């Protein structure tokens, strides 16, 4: 894990009387940005330094969008409280309160209720739109596949699902990346973190990412069991959601397989097994 830049430590010491370098502890889990936990008088803060360039084809990386979401959702407990937003020579930097607890592991109902609550919030203007539907998903997947070597492209394009599913009629505020590592559980409270890719769109977009066998494998070590999946859908509380999840599942598995292939091509070897899980689900 990389230490923070010395000039960043000095800058934040001036702005917030933060401690010297020895008081910064690198946080694990981030796949794109760097983050540290810093003890301050009266609590614990996170300093998140955003990567200057990020070519991730599925998960955007916007510091300004994350700051907006923290301001909007922290009062209700769905997100940490934002302390400061700073532009530095190393990239955008956010400082927010550290969410006490541990990443989600084994209570699907807690995760489902947190996402259901989020999806009932009023969405601000200006967020990316993710209306879902098979045509939109297919275009997105083809863009991801186009980033891969020719043999990989041919292999994945052969898995294209058939059929047509329309876009969602009712849109909701989306987290965009609700994997287990971005859900911090403290008793019955769930705080969502890493808000750099929010959107407005089909609620199934968020649900599919949480339910993804690949994302569950990467972030907690194993996919959901059938019982866990059922408990999650029951607790979400929308009797119509199962049908839409099932209808769009082939495209969501195809997209995640393509994304895992892209990650594996970036030397993230753990995504090879994750891709295999998505292909198995797609072709079952």
UniProtKB/TrEMBL annotation:
Residues 25-242 form the Aminoglycoside phosphotransferase domain. Keywords: Transferase. The keyword Transferase applies. GO terms for molecular function: transferase activity. The keyword Transferase applies. It comes from the Bacteria. InterPro entries: AGP_Transferase, Aminoglycoside_PTrfase, Kinase-like_dom_sf. Pfam families: APH (PF01636). This is Phosphotransferase.
């Amino acid at each position: 894990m990389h230490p923070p830049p010395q000039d960043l430590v000095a800058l934040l010491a001036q702005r917030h009387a933060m401690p010297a370098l020895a008081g910064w502890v690198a946080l694990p889990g981030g796949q794109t940005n760097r983050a540290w936990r810093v003890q301050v008088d009266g609590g614990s803060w996170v300093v998140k330094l955003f990567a200057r360039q990020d070519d991730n084809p599925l998960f955007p990386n916007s510091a300004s969008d994350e700051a907006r979401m923290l301001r909007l959702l922290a009062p209700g407990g769905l997100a940490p409280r934002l302390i400061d937003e700073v532009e530095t020579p190393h990239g955008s930097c956010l400082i927010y309160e550290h969410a006490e607890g541990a990443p989600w592991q084994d209570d699907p109902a807690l995760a489902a209720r947190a996402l259901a609550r989020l999806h009932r919030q009023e969405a601000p203007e200006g967020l990316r739109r993710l209306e879902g539907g098979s045509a939109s998903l297919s275009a997105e997947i083809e863009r991801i596949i186009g980033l891969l070597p020719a043999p990989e492209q041919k292999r994945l394009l052969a898995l294209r699902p058939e059929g047509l599913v329309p876009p969602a009629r009712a849109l909701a505020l989306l987290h965009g990346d609700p994997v287990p590592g971005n859900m911090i559980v403290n008793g019955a409270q769930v705080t969502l973190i890493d808000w750099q890719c929010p959107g407005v769109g089909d609620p199934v977009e968020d649900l599919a990412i949480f339910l993804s066998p690949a994302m569950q494998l990467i972030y907690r070590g194993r996919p959901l069991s059938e019982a866990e999946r059922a408990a999650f859908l029951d607790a979400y509380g929308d009797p119509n959601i199962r049908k839409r999840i099932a209808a769009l599942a082939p495209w969501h598995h195809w997209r995640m397989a393509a994304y895992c292939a892209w990650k594996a091509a970036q030397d993230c070897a753990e995504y090879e097994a994750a891709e295999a899980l998505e292909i198995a689900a797609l072709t079952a």
